[in-house]
Design a protein that fits this description.
Structural class: mainly alpha
Radius of gyration: 18 Å
Number of strands: 0
Largest sheet: none
Shape: elongated
Helix content: over 70%
Distance between the termini: 13 Å
Length: about 150
C-alpha cells in the first residue's frame, strides 16, 4: 500500500477541522435565522435603509448564500471524514460567497448606507474560505484526505 495514502493526520488536523465545522455551522445558523425571520423581526434589528436592501435582495443572492453556507458545512464534514471532495465543496462555497458579496457591495447600494468597516467581516469570510481550500488541498497533498 502506498505510504502517502495511508498517512494519518496529526492532532492539529482534527482541531482545525472541528473549528472549520463550527465556523460553517454558524454560517448555516445565520442563513436559517435570516431566511426565516419575519418582517417585524427584521424591522427591529435593521435600519429602514438596510431593510429596503434586504427586501430587494434577488433570489439568486439568497441562493448563493445557501450554497455558500451548506457547501462550506458539507466541505467541513468531508474534511472530518478525510475525503478529498471536501476541497471541491470549499471551492463551490467560496465562489458562492464571492457572488453574494458582489451583489451586496457593488450592486445593492449597501456601502452607500453603511461605513466601509461593514466590509470587514465579509472580507474575513473570504479569507477563511480561501484558507479552507488551501487546508483541504494541503490535506490531499499530505495524504490525509482520500
Amino acid at each position: 500500500m502506498n505510504k502517502v495514502l495511508s498517512r494519518k493526520p496529526p492532532g492539529s488536523f482534527w482541531a482545525i477541522s472541528i473549528v472549520i465545522l463550527v465556523w460553517n455551522a454558524i454560517g448555516v445558523f445565520q442563513y436559517v435565522m435570516l431566511t426565516t425571520a419575519s418582517a417585524e423581526q427584521l424591522a427591529t434589528s435593521l435600519s429602514a435603509a438596510e431593510l429596503a436592501i434586504f427586501q430587494s435582495t434577488p433570489g439568486w443572492v439568497t441562493g448563493a448564500f445557501a450554497i455558500a453556507v451548506f457547501g462550506g458545512l458539507g466541505g467541513a464534514i468531508g474534511l472530518l471524514a478525510r475525503k478529498s471532495w471536501a476541497r471541491t465543496l470549499f471551492i463551490v462555497s467560496l465562489i458562492a460567497v464571492l457572488a453574494q458579496h458582489f451583489w451586496t457591495f457593488f450592486l445593492s447600494g449597501y456601502l452607500d448606507i453603511m461605513p466601509i468597516s461593514a466590509a470587514i467581516f465579509p472580507i474575513i469570510v473570504v479569507i477563511v474560505g480561501m484558507f479552507q481550500i488551501w487546508y483541504a488541498r494541503n490535506g490531499i497533498r499530505r495524504g490525509w484526505l482520500r
